[in-house]
Amino acid sequence: MRTVTAPIPKSGPTINKDRIIDWLGIAPFMLFAFLFLLAPTFYLVIGAFFTPDGQLTLKNISDLFTPSILSAYWISIRISLASALGGAFIGFFLAWAVVLGGLPASVRSTLLTFSGVASNFAGVPLAFAFLATLGRTGLATVLLRDWFGFNLYSTGFNLLSFTGLTLTYMYFQIPLMVLILTPALDGMKKEWREASEILGATNRQYWTMVALPILWPSLLGTTLLLFANAFGAIATAYALTGSSLNIVPILLYAQIRGDVLHNPNLGYAIALGMIVITGVSNVLYLMLRMRAERWQK
């Protein structure tokens, strides 16, 4: 008896439904990133090399080296660097205190919760808070003057200045440092300290020869991230100082939207310079973070 076997159907390309669902889930984020991050960046980069009437030019790039624009970049770099170093220094010790300092767990949860809120507290509300606290008629200024006889502004302090803006930026720089550095401190293995103690190392030797070299990529990378975070901030600076402090974001705003300094394409070139500076900072941060993650594995 002859048996007839059914032909085996040819297997075509299989469709992974789970993978499709995963891509559909991330599609809104990719669309959002393209529309509000990538597309505007490409528009700024291209616009920096054209005149308002559409002619190709390098004048916008050469104008970046004029004294007024170079001065704005220099002030922004100084403010960003000062607030990043101050935020990194204070934030490191705060994170160390709650992770390795033996404080109660409630203190850690409270600090991390506050840091999550304070790191996003910026713009007009933050500027108003500092004016109401450290302004010429602010609460802290009046209390120091009336209760302790100390006039803060007689020392040369001015909230609407380099020092005042740096201090204001540190309000959200310190919590951001705490949030980013806490996981790195959590990754410090107890075996490393135990091994150093067995070998006769002191606490100072452990930190200088073991802990800090391991944490150094995280510390430096987070400081670079804080620098980029402060360099691109505009809402707080504009609400606090107006146009009295010539930093790059305010100069960019004046070039694009202002009535007097209206030159959109020069504004695009200024934005391109900011993208380069913050981009280099973020790339270095990512490289240092990957190195720190390799250490902690």
From TrEMBL:
<keyword id="KW-0812">Transmembrane</keyword>
<feature type="transmembrane region" description="Helical">
    <location>
        <begin position="266"/>
        <end position="288"/>
    </location>
</feature>
<feature type="transmembrane region" description="Helical">
    <location>
        <begin position="71"/>
        <end position="99"/>
    </location>
</feature>
<keyword id="KW-0813">Transport</keyword>
<dbReference type="InterPro" id="IPR035906">
    <property type="entry name" value="MetI-like_sf"/>
</dbReference>
<feature type="transmembrane region" description="Helical">
    <location>
        <begin position="111"/>
        <end position="139"/>
    </location>
</feature>
<dbReference type="GO" id="GO:0055085">
    <property type="term" value="P:transmembrane transport"/>
</dbReference>
<keyword id="KW-1133">Transmembrane helix</keyword>
<comment type="similarity">
    <text>Belongs to the binding-protein-dependent transport system permease family. CysTW subfamily.</text>
</comment>
<feature type="transmembrane region" description="Helical">
    <location>
        <begin position="20"/>
        <end position="51"/>
    </location>
</feature>
<feature type="transmembrane region" description="Helical">
    <location>
        <begin position="233"/>
        <end position="254"/>
    </location>
</feature>
<keyword id="KW-1003">Cell membrane</keyword>
<feature type="transmembrane region" description="Helical">
    <location>
        <begin position="159"/>
        <end position="185"/>
    </location>
</feature>
<feature type="domain" description="ABC transmembrane type-1">
    <location>
        <begin position="73"/>
        <end position="287"/>
    </location>
</feature>
<protein>
    <submittedName>
        <fullName>ABC transporter permease subunit</fullName>
    </submittedName>
</protein>
<keyword id="KW-0472">Membrane</keyword>
<feature type="transmembrane region" description="Helical">
    <location>
        <begin position="206"/>
        <end position="227"/>
    </location>
</feature>
<dbReference type="InterPro" id="IPR000515">
    <property type="entry name" value="MetI-like"/>
</dbReference>
<dbReference type="GO" id="GO:0005886">
    <property type="term" value="C:plasma membrane"/>
</dbReference>
